[in-house]
Design a protein that fits this description.
Blueprint lengths: L2 H9 L4 E12 L4 E10 L2 E5 L4 E6 L4 E4 L1 E6 L8 H8 L4 E7 L1 H7 L1 H11 L5 E6 L17 H4 L8 E7 L2 H5 L3 H9 L5 E3 L6 H9 L4 E2 L5 H9 L3 E5 L7 H4 L11 E4 L5 H6 L3 H10 L4 H6 L3 H6 L16 E4 L7 E6 L2 E5 L2 E2 L25 E2 L5 E6 L6 E6 L3 E2 L2 E2 L8 E6 L8 E7 L7 E4 L8 E5 L2 H14 L2 E6 L2 E7 L11 H17 L7 H7 L8 E4 L2 E4 L4 E2 L5
Parallel strand pairs: 1-4, 1-5, 6-7, 7-8, 8-9, 9-10, 11-12, 12-13, 19-24
Antiparallel strand pairs: 1-2, 2-3, 5-14, 14-15, 15-16, 16-17, 18-22, 19-20, 21-22, 23-24, 23-26, 25-26, 25-27, 27-28, 29-30, 30-31
């Protein structure tokens, strides 16, 4: 159908493809709810009110919302293939996501990005791509690829690419690092996302002046208010690990609501299946007192405007008929999802078949012959130790007295003082970063994972060197994945056959394996709700304060590696 057909239906001179009657239509422009009917033609909104249609569906008083848009997500964090991810989020009312494939790019480079783009074809979900700006996240770690501006520029011709993903190297931006600025210049005129935890004052102003337009790392209302005042879009994140909605919701008022967007950033299998996706965030925000239509606007129109998606985000004649039909504006129970005017999900089930796609093996190139060992010789009375902050991806900087046996610093489970190691797995360098951490609570055994943001080297935390090495070997044998080990034996394992990050198994099965891993970790004493997600962020050297990379302990405040002993 062409524009002439759409206009004929809009005028009332021709019958619509579909008429949704008995509806309450959420108007994100006026902030009101209108009762009536909605006509659809050729996958587009044609108009409002009664008219002839080939098919009529009575919604019996249900609410029609614009299809939900997740403005910032890393699909790889769902741990399942993109089609399986669509199977989970489309029935929850999500019709589009804006993703940054920097996880798989850190393992497989440009080919990883293209792999994910191919998988998105033919899905009942629009996937818009922000090119990964930081592969690796910093030059202080070893990733599977290094992507410069020359590598990214050819991807700008892809129709699904709409901007530059979160620029995590904020010191590089502030100090006009040529390589960082070249990427920003290449995407001039397009949306450029930020990542600037704690940045304030003149440094924030320099960051914004470079062309960065958003931030999703705020943890306090004051921080968000300052960034909002400097013209940034604020992405209010409520993911599986970082949950900032309650702290940031006070910034949303009549003047700021148009610059605030709900995002999830990461959502694990259990949360996708039990809580949902953007519908969960809506439910929680409204439960905390936010006006329901304002909340809907923050997962639709605001995101569409931010990213220049001019044909969606509201229920308007001539815009895409991407719709989420919900029972009410409190629980946001999604009854049906329409994509381009076609019903693609109902009663939390996708109405079409999706295939997981082929595996994409990631490198497990650990040069054991170059690794002399992981022992740490005592060299002082106080050590810098990473302190886990529950439910956050930031960490504390702790000073601790080491436990020493025969001149070597060892894990001390009685003190929750554990060794943590990062084995470089991409290039066979033999690099191993070794440090100590408090907050996991393990009393025995070890945990290992190749999901370790953002370079995704092999990360292990354990109660002894033998257990750490056994866990590392177990995950290496899987070709990438996650494992919990006790006395050298694998209690639970999850192979991840897509770059060591995702599985081609169904979401429900991946969830069972993940819960098995979490249960095994708890049996060994771990006190964290999601220990593997927490472990994955201990290697991210752009989130304060102390982190660990394959090159050693990293102080984010000085943006440098630091010795273990103070």
């Amino acid at each position: 159908m062409g524009i002439e057909d759409l206009l004929a239906v809009a005028r009332g001179d021709a019958e619509a493809d579909l008429l949704l009657t008995g509806a309450r239509i959420v108007n994100v422009f006026t902030g009101k709810v209108e009762e009536g009917s909605l006509a659809i033609c050729g996958g587009m909104i044609a108009g409002f009110g009664e008219r002839e249609a080939r098919e009529t569906v009575d919604l019996d008083g249900a609410f029609i919302c614009p299809g939900f848009i997740d403005g910032h997500v890393h699909i790889e964090s769902s741990m399942v293939s993109l089609p399986e991810y669509a199977r989970a989020v489309v029935p929850a009312g999500t019709t589009a996501v804006v993703t940054d494939y920097h996880e798989i790019a850190n393992v497989l480079g440009v080919e990883g990005i293209r792999y994910m783009m191919r998988l998105s074809e033919g899905q009942p979900l629009d996937v818009f791509v922000m090119l990964p700006s930081c592969v690796p996240a910093t030059p202080m770690e070893t990733a599977g690829a290094v992507l410069g501006a020359k590598d990214l520029i050819p991807l700008l011709d892809e129709g699904s690419v709409i901007g530059l993903g979160e620029v995590m190297n904020f010191p590089g931006v502030i100090n006009a690092d040529p390589a960082v600025m070249e990427k920003i210049a290449a995407c001039s005129g397009l949306p450029i996302d930020g990542h600037a935890p704690g940045l304030s004052g003149h440094e924030l102003e320099a960051y914004v002046a470079a062309g960065i337009g958003s931030d999703h790392e705020c943890v306090s209302a004051d921080e968000a208010a300052e960034k909002l005042a400097r013209g940034m879009y604020i992405y209010i994140r409520e993911g599986s690990t970082a949950r900032n909605l309650e702290a940031l919701l006070p910034i949303v008022d009549a003047s700021s609501a148009g610059r605030c967007i709900f995002v999830d950033d990461d959502r694990q299998p259990r949360d996708l299946l039990e809580e949902g996706h953007m519908d969960f965030i809506l439910r929680k925000a409204v439960g905390l007192g936010l006006d329901p239509v304002t909340a809907v606007r923050m997962v639709s129109l605001n995101a569409a405007r931010r990213f220049g998606l001019l044909d969606r985000g509201g229920i308007v004649p001539g815009w895409r008929a991407d719709l989420a039909v919900v029972k009410d504006l409190e629980g946001f129970e999604v009854l049906q999802t329409y994509k381009d005017g076609a019903k693609v999900a109902e009663e939390r089930e996708l109405l079409m078949d999706v295939q997981p796609g082929p595996p994409a093996p990631g490198a497990m190139n650990i040069a054991w012959e170059k690794i002399p060992g992981i022992e740490v010789r005592a060299d002082g009375q106080e050590m810098l130790v990473i302190g886990v902050v529950p439910d956050q991806i930031i960490t504390d900087r702790l000073g601790e007295k080491p436990t020493v046996v025969e001149g070597m610093v060892v894990s001390d489970p009685a003190r929750d003082f554990l060794k943590i190691c990062v084995f470089e797995r991409h290039r066979g360098t033999g690099n191993v970063g070794i440090g100590f951490i408090k907050g996991f609570g393990l009393r025995e055994g070890a945990m290992a994972s190749t999901v370790a943001h953002d370079s995704h080297n092999l990360m292990v935390v354990g109660t002894s060197d033998d257990e750490i090495l056994a866990a590392a070997r177990a995950v290496e044998h899987m070709g990438g994945g996650q494992a919990v080990v006790k006395e050298g034996e694998v209690l639970v394992g999850l192979p991840l056959d897509v770059a060591g990050l995702m599985s081609t198994l169904p979401l429900a099965e991946v969830r069972e394996r993940v819960e098995g891993l979490q249960g095994a970790a708890r049996q060994l004493g771990c006190t964290l709700v999601d220990p593997f997600m927490t472990l994955s962020f201990m290697a991210l050297p752009v989130i304060p304060e102390l982190k660990i990379t394959d090159r050693g302990l990293f102080d984010v405040s000085t943006f440098s590696h630091v010795p273990l002993f103070t």
